[in-house]
Design goal:
The complex is a heterodimer of chains A (115) and B (595). Chain A is mainly α and 115 residues long. Helices cover 71% and strands 0% of the residues of chain A. Chain A is rod-shaped, with a radius of gyration of 48 Å. Chain A starts with a helix and ends in a 12-residue tail after the last helix. Chain B is an alpha+beta fold and 595 residues long. Chain B has three domains: 39 residues; 129 residues, Penicillin-binding protein 2a (Domain 2) (Alpha-Beta Complex); 346 residues, Beta-lactamase, CATH 3.40.710. Chain B is built from 18 helices and 23 strands. In chain B, the strands form seven sheets. In chain B, strands 2, 3, 4, 5, 10, 18 and 19 form a seven-stranded mixed β-sheet that branches. A five-stranded antiparallel β-sheet of chain B has the order 12-11-23-22-21, with helices on both faces. In chain B, strands 1-8-9 form a three-stranded antiparallel β-sheet. Chain B is elongated, with a radius of gyration of 37 Å. Chain B starts with a helix and ends in a 9-residue tail after the last helix. Classes of the chains: A mainly alpha (115), B alpha+beta (595). At the A-B interface, helix 2 and helix 3 of A face strand 3 and helix 9 of B.
């Protein structure tokens, strides 16, 4: 009988006698303090990176928003200029001095229309 | 060997220690510096950083537009346009000759002027040009010359030139409204300034991620819609300009008001000014809207109200007649009439208005008292002037510097009864009392519209940015100014006056059938600054209405010292009324009888 078969036979005996068995499990591996620190630093870096990404993204949106606002201001300025031009074209002095209106002749009303 | 090795190790260790010491010392120095910078000098560097990164500015609100009616549309008559101020920092300009040459081409300014500006010493800010258009500013900035910049600013633009300028007012360089609508509605027109506080990047773009950013957008001013009819306003101004030339009057004012709402349809003075060039105006009196700010003694147009008060008081009616003595003597002074109309005899209320009898107006005043000019007559007439017709009080129209005029007190303690009787007899025919054209038009409206006094108004409403207008409703101040009987009598009497004047030779008072026109002239002596009246200076006034089934427009005209061959009222103001009435009829502003 070999040593191992002897031990197996012994274990069988214990089992048969319904007795407690001491079990030897391999101890779980844990990280040491250095690893923990490194992991924490890496995690902090990752979080920082995510934060920076979001900040940059937000600021990019901010820049786009600013550009849109600038464009809106320009368009409003153009609109105002057009509004001024339109009002100047409708100026009564301009209409009065227009060649077409100068060629119009005045007539006295001969009748009043009833609607 | 061992000793050598030991010696070597000690030597190496010493070197390492030295290096280590220096490293530690260096790190220590860094830490000390860091502590100094981060802790001790924290405020200084924090502020420096903020100065570079923080943008803090007020955002100006856009001033509201002013619009008016024209052919069923709203037309803007006061707008904003952005112009630019071009400035330079002479210390940064490298090639002054080329820069001034390029600027000269864009700005149409002499190169020598620009060169001398850019060569200015001891300053880093020189204004090169003001009110430069956007295109010109873009061209200049396109040169990319260091030391040149532009600053945008909104300016008021008046596409209709001097149209309604005195009632509009103007906006000065600080953005504050002066005179007219601009002054009275300055708060509503100017809006509320916005505010921006933000951390920015190197290009000045606000960083959205900064939690302390403050961005309060500006609240733009409200757009104001006026009651004015632009075409009517333009024609009124043309009529006044022509009259001023032919009559050589230094000042003519006129108001056309809707008799049944109090809305001002046209309001003008001649001379006027262009508000776009307000800084070139030499006489500040030109800024005043004389129709509300210059009260004068109206003369015989006041008889309209003396008659209305006497009729309404109940002592006389439209058909009452009396014996006119051709003169009254009060406090030793004679009250007489003009020679050609002033003979003694039986006279009617119609004669008082048609012949403009001063003795008749005094007689009407007597009927308000105990048959003579006394305290009771003074009190009753004063009550009509101040409480019914609201003379002596500002109308509260939306205009700067409105004057209420002067109505004498009926019972002054330190004056004799005779003196006060004379003063009040004078007021019955429009001397010794001052009123504005607006007050006259407004009071006439209440006499001819059945007795309802409306508050005269120029602001029809406020428009939002989409163009939706929230219109104001006419505001009734009193509904018992005169009875409807008195109102009808006055309409009839004033129509008769116009007809009789037309028959007497004033042919321009002939109007097409289907319209009813009434009115009354006034000629007033001009008071001297130190008391008394000039013998040779007269103001002309006219008070009338134009309508169909009922009076539609009330018109008041004041002509200052016209040079005309005849009475200032009949030959100075009345022709202007004729032109205005024809304009209103010919341009279909008046609804004819039966429609």
């Amino acid at each position: 009988m070999t040593y191992s078969s002897t031990m197996a036979a012994n274990r069988q005996n214990y089992n048969q006698k319904n007795k407690n068995v001491i079990s030897f499990h391999k101890r779980a591996k844990t990280l040491g303090p250095v690893s923990n620190t490194v992991i924490l630093i890496v995690l902090a870096c990752l979080l920082g990176l995510i934060y920076l990404t979001q900040v940059v993204k937000t600021n990019t949106y901010g820049a786009q928003l600013y550009a849109s606002q600038q464009q809106q201001t320009q368009l409003e300025s153009q609109y105002t200029n057009l509004q001024v031009s339109s009002a100047q074209l409708q100026s009564l002095d301009r209409v009065q001095n227009n060649q077409v209106s100068k060629n119009l002749s005045q007539v006295s009303p001969s009748a009043t229309l009833n609607n | 060997m061992n000793n050598d090795s030991q010696r070597f190790n000690l030597k190496a260790l010493f070197k390492v220690n030295i290096i280590f010491f220096f490293i530690i010392a260096f790190i220590g120095l860094l830490l000390v510096r860091l502590f100094y910078v981060q802790v001790i000098k924290y405020s200084f560097y924090h502020q420096s950083a903020l100065n570079n990164q923080l943008e803090q500015s007020k955002i100006p609100a856009t001033r509201g537009l002013i619009e008016a009616h024209e052919a069923g549309q709203l037309i803007p008559i006061v707008l904003n346009q952005q112009f630019f101020t071009i400035y330079a920092d002479p210390t940064l300009i490298k090639n002054i000759d080329k820069t001034s040459s390029d600027l000269s081409g864009v700005l149409n300014m002499p190169k020598s002027t620009l060169k001398s500006l850019l060569e200015t010493h001891n300053t880093r800010y020189v204004v090169v040009a003001k009110k430069v258009s956007q295109d010109q500013a873009n061209k200049i900035l396109g040169f990319r010359y260091p030391g040149l910049g532009s600053l945008g600013q909104d300016y008021r633009v008046y596409p209709q030139g001097d149209l309604a300028s005195q009632l509009l007012g103007f906006v000065d360089n600080s953005g504050h409204g002066n005179y007219g609508i601009e002054q009275v509605l300055n708060n509503q027109l100017s809006g509320k300034t916005g505010y921006l506080k933000a951390i920015t990047d190197v290009n000045g773009v606000p960083l959205a991620a900064s939690k302390n950013n403050i961005d309060i957008p500006p609240q733009n001013g409200k757009n104001v819609v006026l009651t004015l009819d632009l075409a009517m306003q333009k024609q009124l101004q043309d009529i006044l300009a022509n009259a001023a030339k032919s009559e050589k009057s230094p000042l003519i004012s006129a108001v056309i008001m809707d008799s049944n709402t109090g809305a001002i349809k046209a309001m003008a003075n001649y001379p006027s000014y262009n508000p776009a060039h307000y800084n070139q105006v030499k006489d500040p009196n030109l800024f005043n809207n004389a129709t509300v700010a210059n009260p004068i003694e109206p003369g015989s147009t006041m008889k309209v109200f003396t008659a209305a008060a006497a009729l309404n008081h109940g002592n006389v009616n439209q058909n009452t007649t009396y014996n006119d003595p051709s003169q009254w003597i009060i406090d030793g002074f004679k009250i007489t009439n003009i020679e050609e109309d002033g003979g003694a005899g039986k006279k009617s209320i119609e004669d008082i208005l048609n012949l403009s009898l001063n003795t008749g107006a005094t007689w009407l005043l007597m009927q308000m008292g105990g048959g003579k000019v006394d305290l009771k007559a003074r009190q009753v007439w004063n009550d009509y002037m101040t409480n019914h017709f609201r003379f002596g009080k500002a109308t509260d129209i939306e205009q700067g510097y409105e004057s209420g005029g002067i109505v004498p007190n009926p019972d002054i303690a330190n004056q004799s009864d005779d003196q006060q009787n004379l003063a009040y007899a004078n007021t019955s025919f429009g001397q010794g009392v001052t009123v504005t054209p607006l007050q006259m038009a407004s009071a006439l409206s209440s006499v001819i519209n059945g007795g309802t006094r409306y508050e005269p108004y120029l602001v029809d409403g406020f428009a939002d940015s989409q163009g939706n207008v929230n219109y104001n409703k006419p505001k009734v101040i009193a509904s018992n100014v005169v009875s409807s009987n008195t109102s009808n009598s006055m309409i009839s009497l004033l129509e008769t006056v116009v007809k009789k004047h037309e028959e007497a030779g004033f042919k321009y008072l002939a109007f097409p059938s289907g319209y009813n026109i009434g009115g009354k002239t006034g000629t007033a002596q001009v008071p001297k600054p130190d008391g008394g009246y000039y013998d040779n200076k007269f103001n002309g006034t006219y008070l009338g209405f134009v309508g169909g089934n009922k009076p539609q427009y009330s018109v008041a005209i004041f002509v200052t010292t016209p040079t005309v061959p005849g009475y200032a009222g009949s030959y100075g103001a009345q022709p202007i009324f004729g032109n205005i009435a024809h304009m209103l009829i010919n341009q279909s502003y008046v609804t004819p009888i039966g429609q």
